Amino acid sequence: MLLFVIVMLVLExxxxxxxxxxxxxxxxxxxxxxxxHRRELNVDAVFGLRMAEGQLWQLLSNESLIMHxxxxxxxxxxxxxxxxxxxxxxxxxYLMNLNRSYFEQFLYVISSPWIKSIYPRxxxxxxxDNFAVQSDADENQYVDFTEEQSDLCMAGLMxxxxxxxxxxxxxxxxxAFMVSEKASGYYLTHQLLFYSLGKKLGCEVVMRNxxxxxxxxxxxxxxxxCGRVYRQMEVLYSTGEISVVDLFLESAAVCAPLGFYQVMKxxxxxxxxxxxxxxxxxxxxxxxxxxxxxxxxxTVRRILVDRTMSDGCSAHMSGVAAGxxxxxxxxxxxxxxxxxxxxxEAATTPLDVVNxxxxxxxxxxxxxxxxxxxxEVLSRVDMGSKYSFLLLLLVFVVGLFxxxxxxxxxxxxxxxxxxxxxxLQV
Length: 426
Prior knowledge:
single chain, mainly alpha, 21 helices, globular
């Protein structure tokens, strides 16, 4: 009975982590909200939706994944991809009226889904990447690199700086920002977005030549910067505050499509799902003094410009969340099918194995709970933290020792019989 209770407790811990259906429901709910409120979207919301659409099409094109999904799930994925496509198309006239010059400058990033081949890659993590939340003054070595300057760098790549501008233009200041390894906060996510945009535009050769002057390499820069993103997300997650959710989502949304699946930890996905509003959107709410102070420390620089929608929803955060949830769904399915094996950069880590086991355990819990009244007691206890999991694991181990000590004589006797039989066979 003791072992049964312990096992049930461990299973209950695992059930607190999200699975494929949880993320799929969250994304479906968010897309539905943005579909209903498509007239209120801005450029960054549609940009996030286009990123999500690209991830969905990438997923649907992977036959080895889709063939193992229920037909209804595959249909939901396809329906969401088409819905996002319609939202982005129908939102164009409203985006144009909202800010015509800004719309024309960033038309390229919202005109089509962000579809690219995704290859699993391992992060480059070093102790030097351990950093705390920094203030505005110390956040960057390029303090004068503002959001407006970031927009100019993106426009230079897209060829929308001037009427006759050509694509793939990278100024000296933009190059200096590209290779900075000390950026953090939104500066860091802007760097990675710059690389992604450049490759999507076909500017990879120009970028490679510009980086080669200082001995830099695009792939290594992406690996290094996403390593810093991972450390940054550790800090953001540890705060547990809503004030960091926007940057948290954006951090993962720019690295996951590059193949760095390690930013999609199950407890981090659970943290992101926690802040989704009942109506489906995400609200950038900083009502308390503590949250306002935290938001000031992390800075309010965004990829683009935010807009408050109906119900107090944030267009920017909701758009980024769409990209984040689609990436989460993609990597949950890839990890669950073990498709990382055989790739040059993606040896499965112990964490991946644990995460896969947790997903399978959650399915077992759903079945066990149908026949056990113990779930009603356990559901009242918050077992979601990793510390609770470790504590329960310790209790489980101690329980095994207690059982072994209680039956020690019987076990010893049984062992002697086995040894005796072994010698007789020899």
